[in-house]
């Protein structure tokens, strides 16, 4: 049983929440910003489509690889130290990207950015678990994840205007400075637990009563569970669509094929952020109160995403701007916001004491999907040549056909995802209560 925090701690935790939310806005901004400035970067750095694809995906490799080590750093160094140090690395990467004399240096800058922001999400969840009661944790995390939508929004229209005004290089220098500011704020004001914030605010949340489990044992348990793999495959291919279109090639597509300005392309892409902001709480409500299940919403969302990628692949040059706007809005909800449900299903799939390990492992797959498919699409675009410096409509059609194939695989994987909501969930008022689940037997899987 947990005890309430002192009143001063109740107020102080929202300062912590605000600072960490500012950091998460930066995480999404850095993740998706290449889409708006990709054309400028190609021209300035004399880079091919494949190289720009590598530049975009360079963020995802270190981000994915850091998900497991982040848990160890959070436990040993503590979230505050880990986030602060790595945001300084992200600051250096953003500045290097803005000053890059060649595409090779730009790739190194993106790698440093991906490495620098990779620790914030996992460390923040640990901070929340200490400062918020269990009944508050889900809603707090949901609001926090919606902040990513604001970061996505700022990486579209606002970045388009800013880069038009001061150039893409100066824009990244400015963002690097803001990243450093957030790192300083985290160091000065964020505390790992209420007990770290002063003698009058001793930690009052109870520690978990379950016995500790080693990281290697937890990893083996998760990977040996057959139900883990359909959701991992779903993550890989669903997020490949989101990161490849919204995070990189959607902007050049709108400018090259439809001849619109960077600012107008940013406006259309920003609708994906609206889909993420609105969709995150909406899908949570529908899953808990409407469908009372995880799998139906994942199947429906994947089916809609498949239809959206089909439109891009088979009607590449025939879509009106309003339809393209709806496609961006839909992709924000069906390949962006929907991951909230997938993460929830992953946690519910395993006993609580290895739920964190399961979440860390499955979090490798969405970023691996982005890392793999961004350069693949860039290679296809480059292979089909250019007209007046722009990639051809045929190239974009072939690239989006790859995303359509990703949609097929994601849709198929969603059919094999195990329903977890029905495993003892009881709705009381507006809160979903999950009774403790028994450990899986040693000789059989659940």
Architecture overview:
It is built from 20 helices and four strands. The protein has two domains: 13-194, MFS general substrate transporter like domains (Growth Hormone, Chain: A, Up-down Bundle); 213-439, MFS general substrate transporter like domains (Growth Hormone, Chain: A). Helix 1 packs parallel to helix 9, helix 2 (34-45) packs across helix 3 and helix 10 (157-166) packs antiparallel against helix 14. Strands 1-2 form a two-stranded antiparallel ribbon. Strands 3-4 form a two-stranded antiparallel ribbon. Residues 198-210 and 423-446 have low confidence and may be disordered. The protein has 446 residues and is mainly alpha-helical. 52% of the residues are buried. It has helices at 7-32, 34-45, 49-57, 60-65, 67-76, 79-99, 103-117, 120-131, 134-154, 157-166, 168-189, 215-223, 228-258, 262-290, 295-314, 321-337, 339-348, 352-362, 364-383, 393-415; strands at residues 386-387, 390-391, 426-428, 431-433.
